[in-house]
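Consider the tokenized backbone below.
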């Protein structure tokens, strides 16, 4: 790796060789959410890459203008899908954000705003303690009062309707494969943070379907977090510490399964995260090679359990960290196509982010809200009865903005729809 120069230090700076891959062709522009919103060159992928090059060549400090442009990026990686030159923008922005958090002196209030989500989101126990408040805040009409307080308005608007009994649900640590299914191997299942508390039905469905399709499922309660949100935000050392625990826990599994797109994206990137670590680098790379989104894994094998009809019209939403960062687009659609009587519809502007993007909708609520409304309108325009989305952040964001538009939009994870087909469960 090249020696760092200019405004970056030598701890995993964005790699100059990767920066040079960008030829500034502009194919990324129509897929970049912030460029679509504002039309500003510095708020496009190629503009941000140019700022990275400038930071390498000049200095000695990062400038507020550079940091603001990088902060405005959602990290959706739509530019990775669009780029004909194969620019690895995901790696560049991840390393750049870590540099910013180490080397740029943010105002105190901004630092607090960026750290606040991590007091909750990667601690399932704290999220469960919060669940009763979330469950009652709309009943008590606290949401109207809170909506006037800018610091907490995004949290209130995104708060899901989750029954308390489901928030406290626990999965068995070991689930054997179905007796009638051919055994595939041992699948380690990472339960996630927000997913296990507010979307526990998704985790239950994941384990049940994997077992029905011939997998022995190992789903320990800990570790609670894979470090994805911190990694995407620039808190690299905290993310690396969490990643080590995840690797240690699941290292002996045949595959490692995840049902949250953001988590899967980060876990597949552990090899890059530890590229300068002689001990953990090889282990991380070997681990990442075993990571699969649940829809990706199921699509790799012929179906075993019988699929029963689910008479439903569903619009498919491509979660950015699944479609762009992982390149998993055909597999979820193929699984849904296996379900009799389920009709799949495609929304306009599938490639544009919904505005969730980790904690982006908390630290950049205004552009996130514009994108959320745009995404909700496109999904509603399909006329579908429900939406399929493979990431909890997307589900929260889309549901909230559909409510703002006067619609209660039902959102399922694709694995929930497949589970309903296998079990003949009626969807509500």
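A designed sequence for it:
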């Amino acid at each position: 790796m090249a020696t760092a120069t200019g405004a970056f230090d030598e701890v995993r700076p964005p790699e100059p060789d990767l920066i040079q891959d960008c030829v500034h062709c502009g194919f990324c522009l129509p897929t970049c959410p912030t460029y679509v919103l504002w039309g500003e060159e510095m708020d496009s992928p190629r503009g941000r890459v140019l700022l990275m090059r400038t930071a390498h060549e000049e200095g000695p400090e990062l400038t507020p203008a550079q940091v603001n442009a990088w902060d405005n990026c959602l990290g959706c990686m739509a530019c990775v899908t669009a780029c004909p030159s194969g620019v690895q923008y995901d790696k560049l922005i991840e390393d750049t954000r870590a540099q910013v958090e180490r080397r740029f002196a943010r105002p105190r209030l901004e630092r607090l705003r960026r750290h606040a989500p991590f007091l909750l989101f990667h601690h399932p126990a704290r999220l469960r303690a919060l669940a009763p408040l979330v469950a009652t805040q709309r009943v008590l009409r606290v949401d109207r009062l809170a909506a006037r307080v800018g610091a907490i308005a995004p949290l209130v608007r995104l708060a899901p309707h989750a029954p308390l009994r489901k928030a406290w649900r626990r999965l068995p640590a070991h689930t054997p494969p179905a007796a009638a299914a051919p055994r595939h191997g041992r699948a380690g299942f990472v339960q996630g943070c927000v997913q296990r508390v507010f979307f526990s039905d998704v985790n239950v469905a994941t384990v049940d379907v994997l077992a029905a399709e011939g997998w022995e499922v190992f789903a320990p309660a800990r570790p609670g977090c894979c470090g994805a949100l911190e990694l995407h935000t620039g808190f690299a050392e905290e993310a690396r510490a969490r990643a080590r625990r995840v690797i240690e826990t699941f290292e002996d599994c045949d595959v490692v399964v995840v049902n949250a797109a953001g988590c899967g994206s980060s876990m597949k990137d552990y090899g890059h995260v530890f590229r300068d670590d002689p001990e953990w680098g090889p282990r991380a790379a070997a681990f990442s090679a075993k990571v699969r989104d649940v829809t990706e894994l199921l699509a790799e094998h012929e179906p075993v359990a019988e699929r029963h009809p689910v008479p439903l019209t569903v619009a498919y939403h491509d979660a950015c960290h699944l479609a762009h960062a992982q390149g998993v687009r055909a597999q979820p659609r193929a699984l849904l196509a296996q379900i009799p009587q389920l009709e799949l519809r495609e929304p306009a502007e599938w490639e544009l982010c919904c505005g969730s993007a980790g904690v982006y909708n908390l630290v950049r609520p205004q552009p996130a809200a514009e994108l959320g409304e745009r995404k909700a309108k496109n999904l509603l325009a399909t006329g579908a009865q429900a939406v399929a989305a493979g990431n909890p952040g997307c589900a929260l964001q889309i549901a909230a903005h559909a409510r703002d538009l006067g619609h209660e939009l039902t959102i399922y994870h694709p694995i929930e729809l497949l589970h309903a087909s296998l079990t003949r469960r009626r969807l509500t």
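The first strand starts at residue 174 and ends at 175.
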